[in-house]
Amino acid sequence: MNGSAGAPCRPRVLVLRALGLGDLLAGVPALRALRREFRQCEIVLAAPRELEPLARLSGAVDTLLHASAPGRAVPGEIGWQGPPPQVAVDLHGRGPESMRPLLRLNPRRLLAFAAPDGPEWYAEEHERDRWCRFLAEYGVPADPRDLRLPRPGAVSPAPGAVVLHPGAGSPARCWPVERYAAVAAGLRRSGRRVVVTGGPHEREPAARLAKLADLPGTDVLCGPPLEELAALVADASAVVSGDTGIAHLAVALGTPSVTLFGPVPPRLWGPPPLPRHRVLWHPGPPGDPHGRDPDPLLLRIRPEEVLAALSRLPEVPAV
Known about the structure:
Distance between the termini: 27 Å
Number of helices: 12
Radius of gyration: 20 Å
Order of helices and strands: EHHEHEEHEHEHEHEHEHEHEHH
Number of strands: 11
Largest sheet: 6 strands, parallel
Strand order of the largest sheet: 8-7-6-9-10-11
Shape: globular
């Protein structure tokens, strides 16, 4: 797998999903459906460079074409080389913006919500279900339950730990650091190791959580390589986070998790209904998922609820 499609030896299918970690993982069932449908083709995924390890781990992608844009926008260019794709698939969005760069490549066939023959878009639909239905309506059978990844080959830096991840894609989905610290304190009192993770730009909240919970600096991991983060999650005893990428990573790797939802409800992005995954959600008026402050629905969740949910998780990840 590399960053350039190169000269083709067989027909190619181009899939655009130049989004984040959670988006990639929610799209794995659809990608696998395309892999099964187009067995004789090279599956080329246009996605951010940093997601290549998990794209490879999915078994559904032959080549990663590096493509991204700030704020989940459509990439200005898709660096496609060679003849037009046999099939181009817009798994990025619903509108013409994400379809246009694919149309410019003159694919023999285009699958897109915005295409004249595209399926209807339902706003109140779970992300995994949406893209599987999208393909099914084009005659490509897809199973939204086909989302598990094999364990990555990297070594976990903290096997058996409970992973706390205070960051999220927007402040609206960030549960207060002080409450994460209260959860960490409760876990440590019961003899469990706690590790804090964060993205490269989340060092401040991660460090503050560690200070409040009196955690050693060695148990704060910000911006680790994706392979290392995946190994950490795979061998964790549990993951606690908001509605963000690491929650989807726990689901993909079968690791017990507690996910804190607000303002977006779990019916749109939540885990499958399995005992090893718990969601905490207090229904109420919809909020702004891109807001600058923690959403009021998220703030209804208390640390004792999180600790209670953790106590009900299975001790060993189900296989």
